[in-house]
């Protein structure tokens, strides 16, 4: 599904460039659940951003679902992102001036889907996540756990083939975090490929394999 070959990311500094990622060779299979771990500054979030087609300034080769990303224009990469990728952030990143239902509609609005069909998908997703009663509330009216639940629902509402999560339970209590991780495990069991960045050894146990970064290099 995803192949990275000799991928590198650097910033121009004097007297020489500062590298964030060095010679990354990585395969992510369809249906995989991968955890990326490593100390702060190791390049974890940067790697996740590149895999998710959010970061375009890197060198090397990257194949995503058969598409040679390194040969695509930024607009074509963005189209791939909207079609295939869902992202769950540590800080939730919900739109404060939109209700829960309206937040869920945002990813669907990027696609060529009629409003009536979008409404049906949102209704199904609200029901699936048990948040129908929250649909008309705004994010600041929800607890942290509820906000992250909505964030996960928004990330998967358009049925992405790849779900990315950057410290998804970092701001949650233990029970709330466990609920999110069990939800990820269920989604993975249904076929969604998941890549998470986490410092939590407990969260890592939910994945199929762990890769570790240190100073921008993959540890052997």
Commentary on this structure:
With 220 residues, this protein is of the alpha/beta class. The protein has one domain: Rossmann fold, CATH 3.40.50.300. Helix content is 35%, strand content 25%. The longest helix has 16 residues, at 174-189. The chain is globular, with a radius of gyration of 18 Å. The mean pLDDT is 93.
- Unreliable runs: none
Strand content: 25-35%
DSSP helix count? 7
Shape: globular
CATH class: Alpha Beta
CATH topology: Rossmann fold
Number of strands: 10
- If you average the pLDDT, what whole number results? 93
- Estimated helix fraction: 25-40%
Biggest sheet: strands side by side, in what order? 6-7-8-3-9-10
The computed structural class is alpha/beta
CATH superfamily: P-loop containing nucleotide triphosphate hydrolases
| N-to-C CA distance | 22 Å
| CATH structural architecture | 3-Layer(aba) Sandwich
Number of domains: 1
Order of helices and strands: EEEHEEHEHHHEHEHEE
For the report, how would you describe the main beta sheet?
A: 6 strands, mixed
Alpha carbon gyration radius: 18 Å
Please describe the structure with a list of short key phrases separated by commas or semicolons.
six-stranded mixed sheet; 10 strands; four-stranded antiparallel sheet; Rossmann fold; 220 residues; alpha/beta
Provide the fold topology.
Blueprint: E1 2-11, E2 18-28, E3 33-37, H1 44-51, E4 59-64, E5 67-68, H2 74-84, E6 85-88, H3 100-109, H4 115-128, H5 144-156, E7 162-166, H6 174-189, E8 193-197, H7 201-204, E9 209-214, E10 217-218
Parallel strand pairs: 3-8, 3-9, 6-7, 7-8
Antiparallel strand pairs: 1-2, 1-4, 4-5, 9-10
Helix pairs in contact: 3-4, 3-5
